[in-house]
Amino acid sequence: MIQIKTLDSLPLPARVFYRVDYNVPLDGTTITDATRIEETLPTLRLLREKGCPVVIASHLGRPKGEVKPKYSLAPVRAKLAELLGADVQWAGDCIGSEAQAKAAALKGGEVLLLENLRFHSGEEKNDAAFAQELRKLADVYLNDAFGACHRAHASIDALPRLFPPNQIAGGLLLAREIEFLQKVTNVSERPFVALFGGAKIAGKIEPLEALVKLADTVLIGGGMANTFLAAKGKKMGKSLGAEVMLPVDLVVADSLDHPTIVEKISESDVPDTLMALDIGPETIERYAAKIAGAKMVFWNGPMGVFEKEEFAKGTMAMAKAVAEAKATTVVGGGESVEAVKSSGYADRISHISTGGGASLEFIAGETLPGVEVLKTGN
Ligand code: ADP
Ligand code: MG
């Protein structure tokens, strides 16, 4: 059981360095999904109510240690001000004299957003000197950037180590992420059904192995299923413990962008000229039945190319099944979360993880540097 230091253990009010994950999707300077900002509002409101001056820091994209305007957090500043209903001050560099002066001048309840941490190479290098510069900005450290906790970067790892142990904690969002992901890894309820799909096989083998050990049933879909069907993976699955189910039918097409042929076929005979892009109706029925009987569900990875209407049925049907299950339900993964949101069932899922890679690493049993440093007893 992992327990982290929480907000209520901090000596507040105090000047807070608040590490968040505002790595939001952008279309130019327009934020296309503000979830990651919205998710930090409860912690921010609490800090402001307690009279804390708050210095907010985040990364955005991969500027690789250089100042690249397209990765500026400026659009986030505007959105945050709108959502918070308060002025958000701005420092054009996350370290240095401007940031220090503005942080020092903040009054209780005021908020300052720093420019992208990754404009400095020290962030990704977990550089001690860079962390020392960030340390100058506040008296306590609070982390809600679950999506970045699997990276030993300066603002996640080196920085909290520079504070006294009773002056660091995880925020409300981080605490909730860990609470729900631990319900999954501890299998707090059974039957536990894991639903696993998506396109990226790399990085998913370890979490899949972990789920096969933890779950009662693992349902496989998406591009992931194709790999298993090709390898006739059924037997391997059984030998590891859980019942592993693969699609019994598929939706196949000749092209992703301009399909002229879209048909449903059994799993055994995908012709050379076609590709499988969704699970079929019989598979949907079987998987939905399994999910309906579950007390715990973890879902990562869409069942098909849900971005295209022709191939979205499997994913949307699973979203409905997961939402309707009388179970603790946890969804993690970038596109998985996107799919659940577009299904309209998001508010009926127990927990939607904001950390794609981080949630999978947690499920796989790996230690996350950002969580490790915040454990109680440190
Ligand atoms: P997540 O971000 O939820 O962890 P992945 O990144 O692994 O999931 O995969 C998401 C992508 O998988 C989606 O964009 C979807 O279009 C794609 N996908 C799902 N099924 C298939 C398939 N059968 N063939 C190709 N791509 C697929
Ligand atoms: Mg993804």
* Terminal-residue CA separation: 15 Å
Mean pLDDT: 93
Q: What is the number of helical segments per DSSP (H or I, 4+ residues)?
A: 16
Heteromolecules bound: adenosine-5'-diphosphate, magnesium ion
Helix content: 25-40%
Query: Biggest sheet: strands, sense, closure?
Result: 6 strands, parallel
Poorly predicted parts: none
Could you describe the 3D structure shown?
The chain is built from 16 helices and 17 strands. It has helices at 35-38, 41-49, 74-84, 97-105, 121-124, 128-135, 154-158, 172-185, 205-214, 222-231, 234-240, 281-292, 313-324, 334-343, 356-363, 369-372, and strands at residues 16-19, 26-27, 30-31, 54-57, 88-91, 111-114, 140-143, 168-170, 192-196, 217-220, 243-245, 249-253, 262-266, 275-279, 296-300, 328-331, 351-352. Helix 13 (313-324) links the parallel strand 15 (296-300) and strand 16. Helix 12 (281-292) packs parallel to helix 13. The longest helix is centred in the middle third of the chain and has 14 residues, at 172-185. The model has no long low-confidence stretch (mean pLDDT 93). It binds adenosine-5'-diphosphate and magnesium ion. Magnesium ion (MG) is lined by residues 200, 333-335.
